[in-house]
Amino acid sequence: MKTVTCTAPVNIAVIKYWGKRDTELILPTNDSLSVTLSQDILHSKTTISASKEYTQDRLWLNGKEEDITKNKRMHNCFRETRALRQKMEQADASLEPLSTYNVRVCSENNFPTAAGLASSASGLAALVYTLAQLFDLDVTVSELSRIARQGSGSACRSLFGGFVAWEKGEAKDGSDSMAVQVAPESHWPDLEALVCVVSDAKKGTSSTEGMQHTVQSSPLMQERLNIVPGRMEGMKKAILERDFQTFAELTMRDSNQFHAVCLDTYPPIFYLNDTSRAIIRLVHAYNSTSPDGKLKAAYTYDAGPNAVIYAPKENMREIIQLISHYFPGQDAATYFTDPYNVIADAPLGQD
Ligand code: ADP
Ligand code: DP6
Ligand code: CO
């Protein structure tokens, strides 16, 4: 039996992915761009063991066994990594035939799962990265990103630290649809993220299901597809120039447009709640206090009610004070951007 443990971080998009042109291969309708958060605080930690004694692939998520027999996306990740391992075994007969063994996956998120804090991103990135370590794969991070994409679209961006674009690609087989790093975390150390946990409850509509309904029913979505390319260019430039003004405005506008598209879905999908909307108003009120008219903070919301606030370091203390004053009891904490890290060969324990 061989066992490996790795962790992977979440990433929070500032230009949102929402919509697939191919649901099997997970190919998106538009490019997206995100910031990878530090995994010191928010991460998925995944342990995988492979043994010839195991009779089937099994997964425990947050201590509870999940039925993965019909989970195609998870099997995509198993199939792709096993195929790469199999090639290695064919070339070198002395290698243990790990590609023929079943696996047991044990994963823990140290933050709310399925609540709009990108657990599918860190979870599937951790799965693919851990499989790659388990199988000793000699592949690039880009290749792993392409595989993670087939587990959950947003997961392809969690393979990189810093500022990361997911280029939708053109190829029908998805060979050019993967993440690329726009700038490393060290490029903009002054930028910080505050995660405000408004609710840790599982969302009513999963991202996968929600975006499919949007593609099928929202006329506004077509307009969004015309708008995103310009925003991608503007956002990349803003990041490269560390231009917080443009970064902040585009981030807030894109979050708002994503939620507008959810509302335009028929029947509508509501991810924001009253507290989320109150935080939006608070950030705009805070920005309007700026004597020179400059933006001091930007909010963004994924498919859930939880806010992520991006701001320059110098404003963070004030923002935390404001949030804790108006929303006492809310669990807010700062997280920094960071690349990702591996803990290999840790024991899985009794199985
Ligand atoms: P989120 O906003 O948290 O990304 P999604 O609806 O996109 O929510 O995805 C949630 C799903 O992702 C979970 O129901 C589970 O199937 C999967 N997932 C989350 N965390 C992990 C993990 N650590 N390992 C494997 N799968 C995970
Ligand atoms: C709103 O990657 O969770 O967070 O590909 O179906 O697994 P699947 O969806 P997922 O969608 C994320 C949507 C989003 C925006 C983003 O992360 O870009
Ligand atoms: Co997700």
Task: Characterise the protein shown here.
The protein is of the alpha+beta class and 351 residues long. It contains eight helices and 16 strands. Strands 8-7-9-6-1-16 form a six-stranded mixed β-sheet. It has a four-stranded antiparallel β-sheet with strand order 2-5-10-11. Strands 13-14-12-15 form a four-stranded antiparallel β-sheet. Helix 5 packs antiparallel against helix 6. 47% of the residues are buried. The C terminus is likely disordered. Adenosine-5'-diphosphate binds next to strand 9 and helix 2.
Describe the SSE topology:
Elements: E1 2-9, E2 11-15, E3 20-22, E4 27-28, E5 32-36, E6 43-51, E7 58-61, E8 64-66, H1 72-91, E9 102-109, H2 119-134, H3 141-149, E10 163-167, E11 178-183, E12 191-197, H4 207-217, H5 219-240, H6 244-264, H7 274-288, E13 298-301, E14 307-312, H8 313-326, E15 331-335, E16 342-343
Bound molecules: adenosine-5'-diphosphate, ligand DP6 and cobalt (II) ion.
Residues 13, 16-18, 26, 32, 118, 120, 152-154, 207-208, 302-303 line the site of ligand DP6.
Beta-strand percentage range: 15-25%
| Uncertain residue ranges | 336-351
Helix content: 25-40%
Largest sheet: 6 strands, mixed
Succession of helices and strands: EEEEEEEEHEHHEEEHHHHEEHEE
Bound ligands, named by name, code or SMILES:
adenosine-5'-diphosphate, ligand DP6, cobalt (II) ion
Gyration radius from CA atoms, angstroms: 20 Å
Class from helix and strand fractions: alpha+beta
Shape: globular
Could you tell me the number of beta strands?
16
Q: Which strands sit side by side, in order, in the main sheet?
A: 8-7-9-6-1-16
Average pLDDT rating: 92
